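PROTEIN DESIGN WORKSHEET
SECTION A - STRUCTURE
LENGTH: 451
TOKENS:
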């Protein structure tokens, strides 16, 4: 990428989430989360896997931060586990749970790495789910209590906060399709959950501003550009519907203060229970939008719902997700133009492939390296076209617990040998390390000899 357009203060990062890496599920007073319960329910997660041990990041974070330093990261995106901080969901604060994040933040800062925390990456306290979970407004109120406790402890050192990660996934995959925790299967629950997630974002953003006035606040959405399969009006309408359900349902309330009218008409029966003032809270200005992107949609008209078209000539990852870097370019330019966010961070992008260690002990992952190279190039083109992108986080630093897929999908640029928990940087790790170093003129001195 010799002519790329990244400014010198562009943030190069890597992303993770608490339940996917931490393990230590029963330690230091952590409460049960919906993902503990879901993983323990037979048939929900492949191979009966759970996050009980995961990458054991809870005990190994110092070694992992050393690895991040070797990689040359500017920022580390992680999430905070609500049930560690408020085991009962609200009320009593478990200081021992906060201690972990306190130490992690200090360790990162000591290595010149910006902590880039997300408050909610899907691990709702189970007690709150038992009382209605995200279908209930009370969970949004509890989220504010949780936010206040975290900001009171970490707000002196964290500069950028993300409230939620991918509310679409929580709402629909968790509440309508039953494939993620909490495993509900009701469209009405999904719509209610989406509204309360957004509402809690707005309220939490306000709480962060109160508790840490200089901090920046954002929300991360999973967005995918939707292309019509042909230029027929029917396919275009189908693509617009898919764009509405996945993208505009969240972008419009956050940036424009209303749900998209075309979808409200369609969803008449399950319209969200919006109260006076909700949309003002949801649309209060934010400092950045986080964008997670892995694939695009190609859409044609179906008999009853839009059809997602599969291109047999395209390359797909181990998740069955199409590799299409231009989709990220188009998405970033479009979101920049239509919604004018103050800044965008690509908070997740990456690929799962069937990695294995070879006889030399290394993990050669040319497909992932090519994926990241091409998507980073797409980000560079978006910046050149005026999209306000300020950073990029690869998903993921480590192989980890990939939700309903358990440990069967490997997204890491570092391989985890699960029986021993040994970390093995993959070739893509070295590529990213060299790429980051090349952007800085002189490489930073490396405390660990690798490569
Ligand atoms: C995203 C999630 C993240 C990870 C990647 C592959 O939807 O935010 O936790 O599972 O997908």
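SECTION B - SEQUENCE
RESIDUE ASSIGNMENT:
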């Amino acid at each position: 990428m010799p002519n790329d357009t990244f400014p010198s203060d562009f943030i190069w990062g890597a992303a993770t989430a608490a339940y996917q890496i931490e393990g230590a599920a029963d330690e230091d007073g952590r409460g049960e989360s919906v993902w503990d319960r879901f993983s323990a329910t037979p048939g929900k997660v492949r191979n009966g896997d759970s996050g009980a041990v995961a990458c054991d990041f809870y005990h190994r974070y110092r070694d992992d931060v050393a690895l991040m330093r070797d990689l040359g990261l500017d920022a580390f995106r992680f999430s905070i586990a609500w049930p560690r901080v408020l085991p009962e969901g609200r009320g009593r604060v478990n200081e021992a749970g906060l201690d972990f994040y306190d130490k992690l933040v200090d360790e990162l800062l000591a290595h010149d790495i910006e902590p880039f925390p997300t408050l909610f990456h899907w691990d709702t306290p189970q007690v709150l789910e038992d009382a209605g979970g995200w279908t209930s407004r009370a969970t949004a109120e509890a989220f504010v209590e949780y936010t206040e406790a975290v900001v009171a402890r970490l707000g002196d050192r964290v500069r950028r906060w993300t409230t939620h990660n991918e509310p679409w996934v929580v709402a629909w995959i968790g509440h309508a399709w039953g494939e993620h925790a909490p495993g509900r299967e009701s469209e009405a629950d999904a719509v209610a959950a989406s509204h309360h997630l957004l509402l809690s974002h707005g309220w939490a953003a306000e709480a962060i501003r109160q508790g840490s006035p200089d901090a920046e606040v954002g929300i991360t959405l999973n967005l995918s550009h939707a292309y019509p399969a042909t230029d027929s009006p029917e396919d275009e309408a189908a693509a617009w519907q898919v764009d509405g359900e996945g993208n505009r349902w969240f972008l419009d309330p956050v940036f424009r203060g209303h749900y998209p009218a075309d979808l409200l008409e369609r969803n008449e029966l399950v319209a969200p229970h919006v109260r006076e003032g909700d949309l003002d809270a949801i649309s209060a200005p934010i400092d950045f939008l986080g964008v997670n992107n892995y694939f695009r949609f190609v859409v044609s008209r179906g008999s009853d719902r839009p059809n997602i078209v599969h291109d047999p000539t395209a390359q797909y990852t181990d998740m069955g997700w199409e590799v299409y870097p231009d989709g990220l370019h188009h998405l970033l330019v479009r979101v920049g133009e239509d919604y004018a966010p103050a800044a965008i961070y690509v908070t997740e992008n990456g690929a799962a492939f069937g990695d294995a260690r070879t006889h030399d002990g290394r993990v050669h992952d040319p497909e992932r390296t090519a994926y990241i190279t091409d998507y980073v190039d797409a980000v560079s083109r978006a910046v050149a076209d005026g999209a306000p992108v300020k950073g990029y986080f690869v998903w993921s630093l480590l192989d980890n617990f990939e939700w309903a897929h358990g440990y069967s999908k490997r997204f890491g640029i570092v391989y985890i040998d699960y029986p021993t928990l040994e970390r093995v940087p993959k070739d893509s790790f070295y590529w990213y390390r060299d790429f980051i170093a090349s952007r800085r003129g002189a490489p930073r001195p490396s405390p660990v000899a690798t490569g």
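SECTION C - NOTES
The chain has a mean pLDDT of 96.
Residues 17, 20, 165-166, 169, 222, 292, 348, 395, 402-403, 411 surround beta-D-fucopyranose (CB under 6 Å).
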